[in-house]
Amino acid sequence: MPRPSLITKASCCAIALARSLWELLVVAVVWPEVSLSPSCRQWCQKNRYATPSGWLLFYSWYLSCYYYCSCSVLLYCWRGTRCFGVMSRFRSSFTVFSLIQSCVQLGLNPSRETRDMRYSHQGAAGRSRDKHKFLRRHKQWLSEFKKLRDEANDEHDAAMKEKEEKRRKFAEYSSKLRKAIRRAEEDPEGVEEELKRKDELRKKKQEEKAKSKAASKPAWARTEKDEELAEEAEVDDLLDFAKSLDYNQIIEDVEVRQALKSVRNRIQNLESTSYVNDDEESSADDEALEGDDWKEKFASEWERLNGGGGERRAEETTTSDRPRSTKSSAGRSRPESSSRANAPQVNGANEPVDQERALLESSRRALQSSSALRKIHSSRSIRNILEKSAAERQRQDGTTVIATLPPVDEGGEDPPWVGLE
Fold first, then answer.
1. CA triplet 79, 80, 86: central angle to 5 degrees?
2. Between 168 and 14, where is the model more confident?
3. N or C: which end of the chain has fewer CB within 10 A?
4. Which residues form the signal peptide (predicted)?
């Protein structure tokens, strides 16, 4: 039911106030004894309202309360149309809310004609409302029926699709089964191998699942079997990493190259310290030979090296006769011997020890002289290249050759043996 607006309320209140003022002037001043009941009149006399001004004040308060309550009931209980009808009747005559009506006696009910008219109007309004209510309910039922029909159609379509999908899957399974039976009849051995392969794959998957499950467990919750499975899983991961490792991609990494460079520098430092130790040992031997028994030690060394060539023994004899007083003399003698070892020798003049030393010295000098060569080769790889080239020349010429490498200029091009490995 719609509520009346603020304008409607204000209009009704203004009309009621005007009507109360009119009755106040007519009734309260002219007929005070008629307008009030005896009990109310006694209460007014008791409370000093017997004067005209007192009657005026009390009656204004009484009428304002009465009309305020009546207007509130009308505004909140009647419809908006009825409120507008009341307003039109207020405009036509002021006999609607009057306490004193000349045509109607006080205390009587409305006449039968008035009541019949009111009932007829109420019945017509009720019938119109019921008619609209029936149509509204019928529309609501139609909408609900449409929703139910749509849901039933959707369920039917879904069931048909599911049935069609099941039929299609069954047809595919049947065709695969027939093909497998025909293939088994044609080639039974191949079918057995395929079954074995599938069994192996299934077992492998189960093992991998068990390993992953064991590896995911904490250490305190693992059993001996779980520990073994976890170790096997780690080994498998390492093997997979090694198989999928791209050496070329990793070796081109800057960090890896720096690490390799540091390792090579460490190897060179260790080799240089080993040569320093050899120099110290040789100088210590020279100092020992300076004593009184140098002849006996020389003889023992001669007998120990008696199995070498004549030229070797003669060279050792000449070198042993030289004065070896200090370590500096031994240090100066080593470059001379290394230069002699690096020179090409033919017809097996040097021993295998000298050949190894010469190859090692040549490879070291080559690495020290070229930074590009150090990025690609190590001393061992260059040594292998030199050995291969010397063996090839020996097969061609029939002579023993110790290959040496000249120093490489850092600013020039790379040597021709770079990239031979």
1. 90
2. 168
3. N
4. none
Which tens digits make up the pLDDT trace of 80-138?
444 444 444 544 444 444 444 455 555 667 777 877 787 777 766 666 666 667 788 88
DSSP assignment of 241-270 equals HHHT--HHHHHTSHHHHHHHHHHHHHHHHH
Rounded-to-integer distance, Cα 37 and Cα 166, Å: 94
User: Residue 145 and residue 127: Cα distance in Å, rounded?
Assistant: 27
CA distances (Å), origin 6, targets 21, 79, 96: 23, 14, 22
The CB density around residue 316, as the number of other CB atoms within 10 Å, is 15
Phi, psi of 99 (to 5 degrees): -80, -25
| Local structure of 307: helix, strand or coil | coil
Segment 193-209 shows an average pLDDT of: 81
How does DSSP classify residue 49?
-
Range among 158-162, 180-184, 375-379 with highest mean pLDDT value: 158-162
Q: Do residues 75 and 9 make contact, with C-beta atoms less than 8 angstroms apart? A: yes
The one-letter code for the residue type at 366 is A
d(CA 182, CA 306): 86
What tokens does 179 get?
């093909």
Four-point Cα dihedral 98, 102, 103, 107, nearest 10: 60
pLDDT tens digits, one per residue of 379-393: 677 777 777 777 777
Q: Give CA–CA dist 372/394, Å, rounded.
A: 29
